[in-house]
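So, does this match?
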Amino acid sequence: MNEKTTVSFPYKGESLIGTVIRLNRKTVTVETDQHTFRVPYPLLTPKLKPPKPKTTKQTSKKSREWSQTQSKDYQKSLSTVINPITNKRLRTLHIAVRLLGEALKNGEEAAINEFTNEMIAELNLIYRLPHLKVYTGGKRRMTRSGGQYYGVYRTRGSQETRHSVSVYSRTAKTQKYVAPKTFLRTLIHEWGHHYDKHKLKLNSTFHTKGFYDRMNMIYNQLKEPLNN
């Protein structure tokens, strides 16, 4: 594409003319006398076509290999069953769950973080998983579709100490503290990715039926103190 290609496009009821600077995947970068715009292809006159993706034999081979790995991970996630928590261990966990529920109802941020980390540390001990730091607090972030991010599991590099979970303790719109059962379910969901990555040795963790079955069983065992 010649960098001096001239195009026109509508903007706030007017028709602007500019020079094409770069062809992107979905838009074209166009420079006018005063500003630079990223214009969707359908709005341009004359019409331009987006650049074709660069594909080489090497990248195609890597893509096939990655797809095979993902397929194996998916099947393993789908078929694996988690062992239930023993009654002895549950008694310890139920204490932390009850105290977490009280902290959420009272809006005690420090206590929320303390009992959340106690619970996850106990789960990691039971299932022989590496340490997982949990960050709590703050309000949920809105998604582009209007939903909310409840929590997130992060892996930064290969060092196990750099893995963490964040669970938001307040809602996005009203900023009220999250209901204890909702908070617990989110926490267990994010911990589930930690379980899949280290216990099942998955490169990619998927939301398979097996994943939800495993986490639902853990959640149902832990939620009892919150039923009252």
Q: What stands out?
A: The CA atoms of residues 139 and 224 lie 26 Å apart. The mean pLDDT is 86.
